[in-house]
Amino acid sequence: LRTVVQKGLLAGELPIVTTNPSWLEEQAKKKMNRAGFEYILGGAGESSTMDANRLAFRQWKIVPRVLKPTTPRDLSVTLFGHKYDVPVLMAPVGVNSLFHKDKEIGVAQACAALNVPFTMSTVAQTTIEDIAAAVPDSPKWFQLYWPSDEETTASLLKRAKDNGFTALVVTLDTWTLAWRPHDLDSANLPFLLGEGCANGFADPVVRRKFAEMSDGGTPEDNIVQASVYWIGEAFPGSSHSWGDIKILKKYWDGPIILKGILSVEDAELAAEHGVDGIIVSNHGGRQLDGAVATLDVLPEIVDAVGSRVTVMMDSGIRTGADIVKALALGAKAVLVGRPVVYGLGINGKEGAEAVLAGLLADLDLTMGFAGAKRVADLKRSLLRRVKYPG
Ligand code: FNR
User: Fold this and answer.
1) Where are the domains of the chain?
2) How far is the CA of 187 from the centre of ligand 1 (A)?
3) If the chain, 390 residues long, is cut into consecutive pieces of 10 residues, what is the mean pLDDT of each piece?
């Protein structure tokens, strides 16, 4: 908080802050190329789920307490036996070379500087090995887009494990890419194909299989063809079912977290199949347009399975108050996507770090105003549901 105030108010430099998401968006639009900006911005369909994610937060208000000592504040949480300094994680976000030359390494370093766990995407344009080398001692989770091919799955998981990634996030809402008008209208798909995907291309099984189907070619020989092959591996259609969770367990002995759960029924199935955590997520409104806002289903999911699995959430987190509301409704932690990647697009690693620092400072202050000294003090009784017309 002190840094934000010193830079902003005292030094006259406008700091990057997340309390005004539209400012971040405006700056990103000015500074980034169109393809990159629109790829971040884009919701699926008419963005109705993206809008609902924000509206849902506005329907909850905090009832603050006063004359309660709230310092020193403790923002730490324990997830899967690890203590983390803050209840906020970086959401997995792929293809970062579209946004800035610092790519995923910049975001990973920004997270490391603030002790925020970094979740690396399967479709990162930096390899698992390079991320591990850049931030060897920082908390790292790996997100899997689940290939239908077991050998490719095993290879990705082995690389993640060998390189110090401690938890596995399996994204289930993106077995194919959704109808995203921004992407279809802008020039980013050809760009994506042309840039390739370093993490996929570095995988020994992916390389071998690509060589088998292309008469001995390497991904570097034909980046567009290799990208099409890799995208087909990462987004294989709806080829998995609940019974396949055992395949993941065969190759991953750490915590397994399913991302993209929105229904109580699926949360129950996740618990029955022995996963460790779930992320209540609609992919930031980028997949099923018309899907329910995550905050609207979080309480019922927490009530149903919260004692058996660790429930986290994302989609629409923009401010400290949003995080307070999600935690008070029972999430054990939240993940944040777009704001940080707008920061990356605006000013590389520094920009990503400034956004995260602002968000954490805002969270710290909001907890204090709410009368909470530690995360466990954030209870449902702190909130009121309100309904404003329009
Ligand atoms: C994503 N998201 C995502 N999720 C995932 O599991 N793997 C991925 O590679 C990506 N890639 C990705 C790219 C971009 C540009 C965005 C904005 C999002 C979804 C992400 O993890 C998260 O669920 C949402 O971003 C959360 O919503 P907010 O915070 O962006 O509103």
Assistant:
1) 2-385
2) 20
3) 59 57 89 91 93 96 96 97 98 95 97 98 97 98 97 98 98 89 69 80 97 94 91 90 98 98 98 98 97 98 98 97 98 98 95 94 96 98 88
177 Cα–ligand 1 center, Å: 12
**Residues with C-beta less than 6 Å from any ligand 1 atom:** 39-40, 91-94, 121, 123, 143, 171, 259, 281, 283-284, 286, 314-317, 336-338, 341
Q: Which CATH class is domain 2-385?
A: alpha beta
- Retrieve residue 207's tokens: 């390389």
| CA of 337 relative to ligand 1 center, distance in Å | 5
Smallest Cα–Cα separation from 382: which of 327, 311, 334, 306? 327
Q: Which segments within the chain are labelled E, that is strand?
A: 60-62, 77-79, 82-84, 88-90, 118-120, 140-144, 167-171, 256-261, 277-280, 310-313, 334-336, 383-385
